[in-house]
Amino acid sequence: MNEFDFLKSEEIEPDTLRHIRLFFYFVPIFGFFPAVWTLYRRAGGRQERALSRFVIKLSVGWLLLYGLMGASAMNAESVPLPVLLAASFMTSGYFGLNLFLMVQLWRRKAISLPIVGKVGKLF
């Protein structure tokens, strides 16, 4: 008996595989790439594509704001510390939000945010 027999895909339920795939979307920074790949291949259901679009918007928004804050800190005539501090708080918020969404997904709750609303009825 092989030690990796538990990894056979026919023994893992399709819903469990989908759940694991969705979990990877919320990995900060790196989850962007599986989300883009899902949209590029037009794979998954409607809810999975909606979640992929949400993750891409969240990642690009964070990267854009982080880049703008870094550029403004470098060009600031006064002390750039407050801008860099704000950028670090924003990055911490991005990572915390992804962690919160991972926990929501793990608990099989609806993925929703107060301003954005429900991303899609996943479970």
Characteristic key phrases:
6% strand; two-stranded antiparallel sheet; 123 residues
Description:
It is a single chain. Helices cover 63% and strands 6% of the residues. By secondary structure, the chain is mainly α. It has one domain (14-118). The chain has a two-stranded antiparallel ribbon. A hairpin with a 3-residue loop joins strand 1 (111-113) and strand 2. The model has no long low-confidence stretch (mean pLDDT 82).
Largest β-sheet summary: 2 strands, antiparallel
Shape: elongated
What count of structural domains?
1
Find the structural class using helix and strand composition. Answer: mainly alpha
First-to-last CA distance: 35 Å
Q: Proportion of β residues?
A: 5-15%
Q: In which range does the helix fraction lie?
A: 55-70%
Give the neighbour order of strands across the main sheet: 1-2
The SSE string, one letter per element, is: HHHHEE
Question: What oligomeric state do the depicted chains represent?
Answer: single chain
